[in-house]
Amino acid sequence: HHGSEASCTGAMLDHYRPVAVIFSCGYDNRFGFPSQAVLDRCTRRGIPHFRTDLHGLIHAVSDGQQWNIVPYIRK
Questions:
Q1: Rounded distance, CA 25 to CA 34, Å?
Q2: pTM of the entire structure?
Q3: From CA 74, how far away is CA 64, in angstroms rounded?
Q4: Contact present, 25 and 33 (Cβ < 8 Å)
Q5: Which residue ranges in the chain fall short of pLDDT 50?
Q6: What is the C-alpha R_g of the chain?
């Protein structure tokens, strides 16, 4: 998700209770995504968030029960 202010409300986060949020956005994008309001909503709820503009590729793997989400580090 790109993280526009109106697209990720507190009510939506409370309803779905995501284990993490990944923001797909370009570095220094002209829209300012993700918005600081959305980042603050995630932070207040203790939801880890990752950004492609800062972290690059995000590696997400599930065993069917839990997710392991980390920035991809090339070995």
A1: 7
A2: 0.83
A3: 25
A4: yes
A5: none
A6: 13
